[in-house]
Amino acid sequence: MNTMILFHYDASGNVQYTCSESSFEPLSIHQRTLLHLSLTQTAGCIKEFSTTFYQTLLKKPRMQLRITDDIRGASCLLPHEILLNAALFECEKTELAHRRRMLIGILYRMLYHWCNPELHVTQVRFHTLGFLQRHKDILASTVFQLKTHAPLFDEADWIESLCQIDTLLMLDDFWLRLGSTPSVRGIYASARGSKTRVRARIKHLIQDAAKSLRSYDPQKIKLLTSYKWIFIDDDAMVLVYALPDNLLKVIRLCRSNRLDSMSADFACRSIRYEDIRTDLFHDHGHWIRNWVHSLQAQAKDPSLKQLEQMLLSDDLHAVRGAISQLVNKIRRKDNLHPSYRLLYSALYYWNNLNKGMCRSICLEVSAILEDILTERPPTFPPSQTNRSVFRTETATVEVQIPKPRNVRKDNFKARLLWSVNGRRKMTLPMQPTGRIQPGGNMTFSVDFPV
Questions:
Q1: What angle is formed at CA 156 by the lines to CA 155 and CA 157, rounded to 5 degrees?
Q2: Which regions in the chain score pLDDT beneath 50?
Q3: Which of 299, 334, 356 is the last residue before a domain boundary?
Q4: Can you give the residue range of the structural domain that contains 438?
Q5: What pTM was computed for the model?
Q6: Contact, 446 vs 416, CB < 8 A?
């Protein structure tokens, strides 16, 4: 199936189709009814949940929905249309109510992203968690359908997020409220202080802050203080909650003027209290997991952080020193993956006003990566060629070397180093033979004394 539906919502929230009747021909009567009910009830849920979103939706003059078999997962947003898996409209009558409610949740997420195209997919997914928590029936039907028809409608970490929705939103709400109170300064100062029993001090401060907010029972307070990892940087502290199903909720406290890729609006929501900023990261699955792994590697091997700073230096010797150390780490298989990432960063991100210097670094790193990725050994063993030669024949060795144009051919000499059963024999001088070939190659030859 592959059909396109054009529609919009009128001022009353009713669905108005602007496509021809032929667009509905691939759909059966029951499938058309399911689509129409889902679109109508989605608008009603949006109006109840967010007036701002509802008004934005009504202002959209046209929306394009394509129902197709050529899609992985349940849905996907493209720049010009929303894709829905045709399998969403194929279900038993006993599952029809669950499927309709699941479609409402899917359409809510797709329409929200359609109305806010500047948002990252993790922002849209986290916003949708709030909608699904409010509508428990839609949440329950979505979980039931995803589990029943797995892996047909699977998305990365989505079913896991829905199963941990209360915990994820509770942690986010707590740090959202805490980030605007003086308690966050005490937590940050405690992390920057003595390293003795730092985990116990921070847990005690979080517990006191949760009690002062007066909206968390003892079980929730225990969860709030049960973070698994803490990473302390020069001017930042990162807390990581490890949840079931390999989910992570990550919080960062840092100075307000800290800027990096993880401080962008696409990555986190920031709350400021004086000069302390609390970053609440939108993602809790495979996107944030790689960053946490890099923090773990830096905590295990502090030299990685120093090498990162050296690669950012304007000093060419510091950059080359860092590259050399990274190569040694890779050869020793010491923190292999983080070392690879840093070496690649030197290839793509190292910059200097001197473009010739940039080019030399890029060429050097490219050659190193070529050797490493092709598994070229650091020290090459002697090449070996097996050949049988009778005593009545001559064993001749020939080699070619390039000759620069401005160097006389009399200045080039060659000799053969050889051994028998590991015992070095006398060096044999090689003689130039023939004329210089096109391209400037000279040929030298010598006969073995056999």
A1: 110
A2: none
A3: 299
A4: 396-447
A5: 0.76
A6: yes
